[in-house]
Design brief:
This protein is mainly alpha-helical. The protein folds into two domains: about 1-70; about 90-175, Winged helix-like DNA-binding domain superfamily/Winged helix DNA-binding domain (Arc Repressor Mutant, subunit A, Orthogonal Bundle). It has eight helices and no strands. It has helices spanning about 1-15, 25-40, 50-65, 100-110, 115-125, 130-140, 140-160, 160-175. Helix 1 (about 1-15) packs across helix 3 (about 50-65), helix 5 (about 115-125) crosses helix 7 and helix 6 (about 130-140) crosses helix 7 (about 140-160). GO terms for molecular function: DNA binding; sigma factor activity. InterPro entries: RNA_pol_sigma-70-like, RNA_pol_sigma-70_dom, RNA_pol_sigma70_r4_t2, RNA_pol_sigma_r2, RNA_pol_sigma_r3/r4-like, WH-like_DNA-bd_sf.
Length: about 180
Amino acid sequence: MESLYKLYSNSLYNYGSKFTNDQDLIKECIQELFVTLWTRRAHLSEPANVRNYLFKAFRLSLFKKGNMIQKQVRYEEAEHYAFHASITIEDEIIIGEDNAALQSRLQATLEQLTARQREAIFLKFYEGLNYEEIAEVMDISVKGAYKVMGRAIDALRDKLDHNDFLILLALFSSKLFR
């Protein structure tokens, strides 16, 4: 259990920080997740993918604790469902004064995406999950994961000029191959 905690706690914290700025809530949910796993270990079966299981369980715990889920309300329709994606642009990629202006444009464009689209982008490009894993974590179908990602990429392409879009794709690619 300790090795699982050490391996995944930072990623879970990073993921949780995209939903809320409440650091205590994030830490509490991570702690509660691992305590629950420990106390219920005799009753749990081994998941097919431990990372996906932890992300999904953490996400659900965070939503419940943060009163972010209401019964019978679809995530896409919930105004309080907020997933905040952020971009860090490394100095090696963009040099000079244009860096701040570009970062501002890219961030503003990401903020125009829906919360589900930002979450899918984060899971794909920052956590390196494949579409099946994204679907599992977000509790949607694999087809739905492709649709959310496709719509996010289309929206980014529409909202950014060609050069900014290419830079954003390069940044996403560098996240995949780090």
